[in-house]
Amino acid sequence: MTNINIGINEQDRLAIAKGLKHLLADSYTLYLQTHNFHWNVTGKQFRELHIMFEEQYNALALAVDDIAERIRTLGVAAPGTYKAFAELSAIEEVDGVPNADEMIDILTHGHEQVVRTARNVLKLAQQADDESSASLVSDRMREHEKTAWMLRALREV
User: Which of 37, 71, 84, 94 has its CA at 20 to 30 Å from residue 44's CA atom?
Assistant: First the structure.
């Protein structure tokens, strides 16, 4: 690859890209869980959750593309295999098919994990004066915080 001169030194670019790889892995894992739950949700809230989960996995599908493209912009290969995502993600796989309430709780925790991962990347981007990565990560944080709030609201009685 040719020399990259975008005003961010190589060490910072690599550190940010590494953090973004974790964000990508968390986001993709959450995408898969959300899509799985969309297919398999049952119960009294079926229609509401089925539609909500579809909206969420569609948003995540767009987000993973943006994150992967930012990693490439920084001059690093983006991970793209289940094996790589499993190694990089802080979100654990779910065995079986949980009930609707458990799905909501699992996805809430997943969105909260993505926010925590994003906060770590945001610090790196801000320290390196990488406004493009910081903006992307900040936008992702806001979306995941909002989604976690909406999911938590479903569980309040």
Answer: 94
- Per-residue DSSP letters for 123-146? HHHHHTT-HHHHHHHHHHHHHHHH
Q: What pLDDT, in 10s, does the model give residues 7-65?
A: 999 999 999 999 999 999 999 999 999 999 999 999 999 999 999 999 999 999 999 99
Can you list the pairs that 63-68 forms with residues at least 24 positions away whose Cβ atoms lie under 8 Å?
63/27, 63/140, 63/143, 64/24, 64/27, 64/28, 64/31, 66/136, 67/20, 67/23, 67/24, 67/27, 67/136, 67/140, 68/24
How far is it between the farthest Cα atoms of the chain? 57
**Tens of pLDDT, residues 86-99:** 999 999 999 999 99
- The CATH number of the structural domain formed by 10-155 is 1.20.1260.10
| Domain spans in the chain, listed from the N-terminal domain onward | 10-155
Give strand ranges (E) for the chain.
Answer: none
Sequence-ordered list of residues with C-beta below 8 angstroms from that of 26, at least 6 positions apart, any chain: 88, 89, 90, 91, 110, 113, 114, 117
Cβ neighbours for 22, distance < 8 A, ≥ 6 positions apart: 88, 89, 90, 117, 120, 121
